[in-house]
Amino acid sequence: MGLISIYRLRLRRKYLLARAFRRRRQIRPVTNRMSGLRPQPILLFATMRNERIRLPFFLDYYRNLGVDHFLIVDNASDDGTREYLAEQPDVTLWTASAGYKQSRFGMDWMMHLLRRHGQGKWCLTVDVDEFLVYPFCETRPLRALTDWLDSAGSRAFSAMLLDMYPKGAMHEQPYSEGQNPFEIAQYFDSGNYTVRRNWPYLNLWIQGGPRARVFFQDLPKRSPALNKIPLVKWDRSYAYVSSTHMMLPRGLNLTYEDSGGEKPSGCLLHAKFLDRFAIKAEEELRRGQHYAESHEYRAYREGIANERDLWCMWSEKYINWRQLEILGLMSKGNWA
Amino acid sequence: MTVGIVMLCHTALDRAAQVARHWAVHGCPVVIHLDRRVGNADRDRLTAALADLPDVRFSARVACEWGTFGLVEATIEAAVQMLHDFPQARHIYLASGSCLPIRPVAELQAHLAAHPHTDFIESVTTADVGWTTGGLNKERFTLRFPFSWKRQRRLFDTYVQLQRRLGIQRRIPAGIVPHLGSQWWCLTRSTLEAILKHPDRARHDRYFRRVWIPDESYFQTLVRQVSARVESRSLTLSKFDFQGRPHVFYDDHLHLLRRTEAFVARKIWPQADLLYDTYLSANADTASRLEPNPGKIDRLFAKAVERRTRGRPGLFMQSRFPTKTHGGNRSAAPYGVFEGFGDLFHDFHPWLARATGVRVHGHLFAPDRVQFADAEAVFKGGLSDSASLRDYNPRSFLTSLVWNTRGERQCFQFGPGDAQEITSFLAGDPNASIMVVSGAFAIPLWRSGRTVPEIRAEAARLQKIEADFIALLNTQETKARARVWTLADFVEDPVEPLHQIVDDLNPRAPHRLTELPRMVDLSGFAEFLQELRNQGMQPVLMGDFPASIDMDRIGKGLSRPQVAN
User: Does the distance separating the beta carbons of B269 and A336 come in below 8 Å?
Assistant: First the structure.
């Protein structure tokens, strides 16, 4: 790795930071409930559009883990998302009307908020359909993890995206408000992931799972990245490069051990494949506001049109984090 | 007579206050040393919280940076005050603010009363100590450490390296034999007084001021000069991970803590409400204890360290991705690769599956699709039979397959017609057993019925690929167990190698094969090879194939019931 390419990464980081700063006025505050937060709060950052029905479970899930405050950007919802969020005592809300795509799929807004409010704090950046599980999550709150990461001198914690899906067609099992989505989407693929190093950024590039298996058989290269670094002790100099898949400075991407051992890691259970998915896919295609020319959604539409069931006889039924750890999807590392 | 508690506190002061109160109400005087770096507001809150307890005192404050003499000074300050203020304290127990008594205080008092002259302090010579990390144990005493390990790591490391290279060493003062041990001890009043009032105390302090992590060596070393009876173990349960940081106990460790023989545990996560409630509640004395089994705790933490340093071999995932030299070219379990056998025998797959009981796949790397056993479209773990998915990352495909099927031996066919990118991994994988009958790829060509001019180019291409693979297997870097027979040699005596293969794959199988696979009738194959030569190709991998082959003999050899030997 030459000096020039290192310098190029630095320029890239500066560019991302500047871009987030330039777009800071695209989001307008709706409510601010951040006063009176405890010192060193754990913050959750999210951007969303028309997710009203998912919100109650989402907020409760992360409240239970010990998130102290939610910083959310609502991207022009018209289904009551904004009104619902504005009522929540632990949500600080912004609203954005500008294009999702033009703001790097909301990441510019997220980064601006992270920079403004996340400095020196543990920040969790997730989508509304991503649910973090980490070692011991049913007995130890998130703060136990961040305290431990602090004592270990870690700044970032990786959690691979694990696509969850139901058995049978998605539209047959409607999701109702407040319901645990994993009562429906109970299954996942346990061992068909590809891992390789992404050189200049040093991160691991993970693909695979049911999406690759069903939708991207012929174009594996285009299948979505599953590596994520959602939990970071933020510093104003940090930048997310593409979604939360990788970061700069690139040292933050070294959430894995390359000399044989295992670092602790978690999973983001991905509740994307519910009955609302087909509707959502249509809508997103129409708006053309998603990654890679909505290629992903186009593949889904074809897949769904053929009524492909994501379930197969080797699908694994989700039990708990220990199961994921035994299957080798996540690790306790040296946290005992 | 009782035990006095010296508590070193710097964070989670509300918990420290709770614990200090617990000690005090159970009749143990407490002297608290509060790190000078703690702010005055926090100090005031702590003193206010304990103001109603006459037997809780505060000592003069010293800044305690980890790894420095400040921690020893703090201990000395508090210990001196303890000896002076509480003459009834016969033993002095050193604890921290994040320690939690996990057995009734009365049991500790009884234990100490039964051993009135024993010093409980882990104290091990540097030669025998096994737990220091970072390679510094003897050198803690012989090098100088002017830089902070936490804040000036690079300078710290560089200076250590420099001293090693130049061979500069401090002289250890006469009379001092370096010992190391857990920081948390319980000493008798007389021993502690003897250390603190030692005529050479000033000299000792001067020396230890420059020793690395003196809190793990000051008392541990000096106790050997003055104590009549050292029991070298700590009464405090304290486990360290591979980087020397203490493991933390959480609520879910309660069942483990119930099984320990130690009196105090360190360190407790400040928000472990269940642990604090259980052990500090009024009826803590009756908190149920289980049969002691300290090994269980040791195993738990030893496993955690092993997972962090070694991990699960053959697993490639988001937080384990070893480089080639650290096991990056290794799968999770042994597996077999067979090249040429499927071409030479009519029924090699089913025969192998029957004879060994292992999972036998077809050509996993076939160009059109993955041939899983039983022609499944999806295999264990959700592996797809799509060739393009497989070829996107063949290494991940194979390591996933082996990982997913842990506990069940896998075998598959391979050949020059397959996707070859995986070969370098196969050759480098110590878990691979690769069996090759070289030149067998020509058999299906011969049997295809096509004319020799038509297949000449194809035969040459396959021969080149197979020759490259065999060459790869013969290089120095190859870690796989590889066996290569030429077709001619193999056909000459097929029984012995087949026996070997079965023994290899399933050592517990009966040592007698009742049945052998059916070989393709090779009468006329020699002429085919000659024809290839005539067309300008040089078939070499088949070996010196006999011009006339007695299929009858071979057929008999194969089908004849084997005699046990």
Answer: no
Q: For residue B70, what are the CA distances in angstroms to B66, B214, B218, B333?
A: 8, 9, 12, 51
Owner of token pair 């996107």: B392
φ and ψ at residue B323, rounded to 5 degrees: -75, 170
The domains of chain A, with CATH numbers, are 3-326 (3.90.550)
The encoded tokens of residue A96 equal: 């954005």
**Rounded-to-integer distance, Cα A232 and Cα A252, Å:** 9
Check B318 against A264: CB less than 8 A apart.
no
Average pLDDT, chain B: 89
Least confident range of A2-11, A279-288, B185-194: A279-288
> CATH number, domain at B82?
3.90.550
- Distance from C-alpha of A18 to C-alpha of A292, rounded to nearest angstrom: 23
pLDDT at residue number B170: 86
The per-residue pLDDT for A292 is: 54
CATH for B336: 3.40.50
- Flag whether B137 is in a domain: no
Residue-wise pLDDT for B364-408, tens only, equals 999 999 999 999 999 999 999 999 999 999 999 999 999 999 999
Residue B512: which pLDDT band, with cuts at 50, 70 and 90?
low
Tokens of B111: 């234990």
Question: B81 and B183, same structural domain?
Answer: yes
Which chain A residues are Cβ-neighbours of B393 within 8 angstroms?
194-196, 220
For residue B264 the two structure tokens come to: 């105090």
Mean pLDDT over A58-87 rounds to 95
pLDDT higher than 90, residue B563: no
Alpha-carbon gap, residue B28 to B101, rounded angstroms: 12
Nearest to A204 among B307, B309, B318 (CB): B318
Rounded to the nearest 5 percent, the helix, strand and coil shares of chain A are 35, 20, 40
Q: Could you report the per-residue pLDDT of A25-71, keeping only the tens digit for each?
A: 999 999 999 998 999 999 999 999 999 999 999 999 999 999 999 99
Round to whole Å and give the CA distance between B4 and B82: 7
Q: Are residues B286 and B428 in the same domain?
A: no
> Which residue intervals of chain A are DSSP H helices?
3-22, 55-65, 81-87, 107-117, 142-152, 209-210, 276-287, 291-305, 321-326
Q: Which residue of A has its CA nearest to B297?
A: A336
- What pLDDT, in 10s, does the model give residues B401-429? 999 999 999 999 999 999 999 999 999 99
Whether residue B328 sits in one domain with residue B305: no
The reply to whether residue B317 touches residue A330, judged by beta carbons under 8 angstroms, is yes
8 A C-beta contact, residue B192 and residue B246: no
Residue pair B194/B223 in contact (Cβ under 8 Å)? The answer is no
Q: How does strand B378-379 pair with strand B359-363? A: unpaired
The residue from B309, B338, B359 where one domain ends is B309
A chain contacts of residue B275, beta-carbon cutoff 8 Å: none
Are residues B303 and B338 both part of a single domain?
Answer: no
Q: Given an 8 Å threshold on Cβ–Cβ distance, is B388 in contact with A220?
A: yes
Among B309, B338, B353, where does a domain finish?
B309
Q: Which residues of A touch B384 (CB under 8 A)?
A: 192, 212-213, 217
Q: Which residue of A has its CA nearest to B376?
A: A313
Which residue range forms the structural domain that includes residue B112?
Answer: 2-131+177-309
* Residue B406: closest C-alpha in chain A: A327
B539 and B435 share one domain: yes
Token code pair at residue B22: 């617990």
CB B125 within 8 A of CB B178: yes
Closest CA to A98 of A45, A43, A26, A47: A26
Test A144 with B250 for CB contact under 8 angstroms.
yes
- Tens digit of pLDDT for each residue in B449-478? 888 888 999 999 999 999 999 999 999 989
